[in-house]
Amino acid sequence: MGVIDMDELLLSNWFDINSYLLKLGIKPGSTYYQLGAVKEALISVYNVTPKIQCLSPEQDEEVQTIGQIKFCFTKDFTLRNCTESNVDSYSAHENMLSRTEDLSICNDTLINYPSHVQPYK
């Protein structure tokens, strides 16, 4: 059994994105959402703008899938807007569906909030 890092444990509890989105009516699954609605829901909880990255749609589809939600921090671990440019910043990643090179900033269109996460192997 490995050692549990208490800072990591607390951070993962605080960033329970799925629970917060669910409470705000954004449910994972087959329903599509406007990117702005998901972003505004997260801003209402965390009071900062996250970076939402998506997987490109398949050839026959027009809807992107959320692949990663990124929160940005100052070097003092204070949340900050990811829209700000800051050399002394760090980030925390929510679940990743794929390698980061497969992700891009989501277009301002319909997105799919997947119901399950398949880690990339």
What does this structure look like?
- With 121 residues, this protein is α+β, with helices and mostly antiparallel strands.
- It has one domain (6-112): Ribonuclease T2-like (Ribonuclease Rh, Chain A, Alpha-Beta Complex), CATH 3.90.730.
- The chain is 23% helix and 26% strand.
- The chain contains three helices and seven strands; from the N terminus they run ααβαββββββ.
- The chain has helices at 6-14, 17-23, 35-46, and strands at 32-34, 51-55, 64-74, 79-80, 89-93, 103-105, 110-112.
- Strands 1, 2, 3, 4, 5, 6 and 7 form a seven-stranded mixed beta sheet that branches.
- The longest helix has 12 residues, at 35-46.
Q: Give a short account of the largest sheet.
A: 7 strands, mixed
**What is the residue-mean pLDDT, rounded to a whole number?**
75
Determine the CATH superfamily.
Ribonuclease T2-like
Radius of gyration, rounded?
A: 15 Å
Provide the helix percentage.
10-25%
The number of E-state strands comes to: 7
Q: Count structural domains.
A: 1
Spans where pLDDT lies below 50 across 5 or more residues: 1-9, 87-99
* Category from helices, strands and their pairing: alpha+beta
Q: Estimate what percentage of residues fall within beta strands.
A: 25-35%
Continuous helix count: 3
Q: What's the CATH class label? A: Alpha Beta
Terminal residue distance: 23 Å
What's the SSE pattern? HHEHEEEEEE
CATH topology: Ribonuclease Rh, Chain A
What general outline do the C-alpha atoms trace? globular
* CATH architectural arrangement: Alpha-Beta Complex
